[in-house]
């Protein structure tokens, strides 16, 4: 479809990709919403594992460069003009979201490699924990897009506490794994 055959009003709707409060397009966050939904659905939809394992982070610029959505070019142009400090705050939250999502994919892949479908309770626990962590960071990114500010900034002590709890849980998971008898011993 060429631009001269676009339905009437599509150009105006295309500009709605970019939220005027932030200059950012909400559509980008769908890649994270998708992986969260897949992770949370995995315990009841084991076929989702292929999509989860294939998931990779994509930058804002890559996403809109490849997008066929009307207004993608406008989203890129607007992003390029954002205040550098504001853009850094958004990019920092996205970097954390990428780390969290990639870590979730790795943990789930590891679980499947080691246990296959033999530990549904363990898989459910992993998926619940990682889904909740992803949703927390995704909410911060959503606040930036929707309101143009980092209003839900995580306090340094709260972040340290959360990261410590994640580390403690990971150590517990490893201890539980090695505490279980394997191979008929």
How much is the average pLDDT?
A: 82
The number of helical segments is 8
Could you estimate the helical fraction of the residues in percent?
Answer: 55-70%
C-alpha-based Rg, rounded: 20 Å
Calculate the terminal CA-CA distance, rounded to whole Å: 64 Å
Class from secondary-structure proportions? mainly alpha
Main sheet strand line-up: 1-2
Biggest sheet character: 2 strands, antiparallel
Tell me the total number of β-strands.
2
The best one-word shape is elongated
Summed up, the domain count is 1
Give the helices and strands as they follow along the chain. Answer: HEEHHHHHHH
- Strand proportion: under 5%
Regions with little confidence, pLDDT below 50 for 5+ residues: none
Task: Write a structural description.
This protein has 185 residues and is mainly alpha-helical. It has one domain (19-153). Helix content is 67%, strand content 2%. The chain has helices at residues 10-15, 30-41, 49-54, 60-66, 72-80, 84-115, 120-147, 156-179; strands at 18-19, 24-25. A two-stranded antiparallel ribbon has the order 1-2. Helix 2 (30-41) packs antiparallel against helix 7 and helix 6 runs antiparallel to helix 7 (120-147). It is elongated and about 60 Å long. It starts with 9 loop residues before the first helix and ends in a 6-residue tail after the last helix. The relative contact order is 0.13.
Topology:
Blueprint: H1 10-15, E1 18-19, E2 24-25, H2 30-41, H3 49-54, H4 60-66, H5 72-80, H6 84-115, H7 120-147, H8 156-179
Antiparallel strand pairs: 1-2
Helix pairs in contact: 2-6, 2-7, 4-5, 6-7
């Amino acid at each position: 479809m060429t631009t001269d055959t676009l339905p009437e009003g599509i150009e105006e709707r295309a500009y709605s990709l970019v939220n005027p409060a932030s200059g950012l397009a909400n559509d980008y966050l769908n890649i994270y919403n998708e992986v969260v939904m897949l992770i949370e659905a995995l315990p009841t939809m084991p076929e989702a594992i292929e999509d989860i394992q294939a998931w990779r982070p994509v930058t804002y610029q890559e996403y809109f460069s490849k997008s066929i959505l009307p207004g993608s070019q406008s989203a890129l142009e607007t992003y390029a003009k954002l205040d550098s400090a504001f853009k850094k705050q958004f990019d920092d939250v996205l970097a954390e979201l990428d780390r969290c999502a990639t870590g979730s994919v790795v943990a789930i892949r590891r679980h499947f490699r080691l246990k296959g479908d033999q530990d549904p309770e363990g898989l459910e626990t992993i998926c619940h924990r990682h889904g909740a962590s992803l949703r927390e960071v995704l909410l911060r990114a959503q606040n930036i897009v929707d309101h143009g500010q980092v209003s839900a900034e995580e306090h340094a002590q709260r972040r340290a506490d959360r990261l410590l709890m994640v580390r403690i849980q990971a150590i517990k998971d490893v201890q539980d794994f090695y505490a279980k008898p394997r191979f008929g011993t």
